Amino acid sequence: MTTYDIALIGFGGVNRTLAELVAARGDTLRSELGFGLRVVAITDLRLGSLVQPEGIDLGMALNMDGASGTFAAHGGSADTINESVIRNCTADIICEATFTNPEDGEPAVSHVRWALESNKSVCTTNKGPVAIRGAELTSLAEQNGVHFEFEGAVMSGTPVIRLAKKMFAGLKLNGFEGILNGTSNYVLGRMEAGLDFEAAISEAQKLGYAEANPAADIEGYDVQLKVLILANELLDAGIELKDVQRQGISTVTPEKIQKASREGLRWKLVGSARRNVDGSVTAGVSPVALPLDHGLAGVSGATNAVSFETDLLGAVTVSGPGAGRVETAYALLSDIIAMHAARTGAAAHV
Ligand SMILES: NC(=O)C1=CN([C@@H]2O[C@H](COP(=O)(O)OP(=O)(O)OC[C@H]3O[C@@H](n4cnc5c(N)ncnc54)[C@H](O)[C@@H]3O)[C@@H](O)[C@H]2O)C=CC1
Ligand SMILES: N[C@@H](CC=O)C(=O)O
Question: Molecular function (GO) terms listed (predicted)?
Fold first, then answer.
């Protein structure tokens, strides 16, 4: 049976949860999916780097939290030597889950590039490389005969990108609108319930929804990246970050939320893209007070939803978790399942 060796770049909420899944469910994965997974390298800013081609003891790695020392105490290094680990380790697949940088995607763009250049496949939940360098990295993967998968970059583990690419064949997509950030949606809901903004953000952080800098969620940068990804991947828009207008929810005060509630409206952070008559695409993200009977008004908590406008079916809506450690770790697993299916011709249901 095939075993894929994987390297975890960034060992925070998402990649730790992937390691937990591998440790707890390795046998089930093997029997149900037809392949095994073995973690052979981990790097993290707080822990340093560890490379063990025979497989890392995941119990040991999961017990380390940065306060309890670094990988130097386990035969590794206290330094985060990403380039050397990514290029030289024996992994077949690099799982990139470091911080998303909404400006230029670095250093994650480099992490992905180093992996693809050294003929390793990549799965990532990091929106930066996909949004800002997606076309270039996809083409590099193709040139090198490896895979670049990023289902978790939009709506965490909820299948959207692969689903739309495969299941909407024969349909023309004219645009989409959706709730694409779990944190801001969670915060708006908690504020409607009477919580203050800071307390609501703190809850979203504890639940593993928020970015390392939650301003990325609140000020719309995260949705800007996701709109860019969906527009380029699904509408073939050929647009850049500067083409996606951005406004976050920091202007949506508790007073505005209560007033909207009295008027039968609910504030939501809506990301959208629409194809114009001349073929160009207009895209943006902004807070909107939606009537309660609008399809997106009832989407609550960290749930996300995106409604695609198609020529033959009209609106087709996909809804599911948009954030969360387990949900996003599953996205990485679904990427690996898709790679395995592409390699072996096995049916992939994800
Ligand atoms: N948590 C979620 O619900 C979702 C997260 N994502 C994305 O997945 C990625 C990971 O998310 P989380 O695990 O929740 O974040 P996190 O903040 O819990 O973990 C990120 C980890 O990466 C490490 N790191 C940062 N820069 C690094 C570098 N240059 N080299 C090595 N390690 C580095 C940090 O020390 C940290 O442990 C982020 O890009 C995030 O935007 C995407 C979808 C959902
Ligand atoms: N911080 C993001 C995580 C997923 O991309 C969110 O809240 O949606």
Answer: homoserine dehydrogenase activity
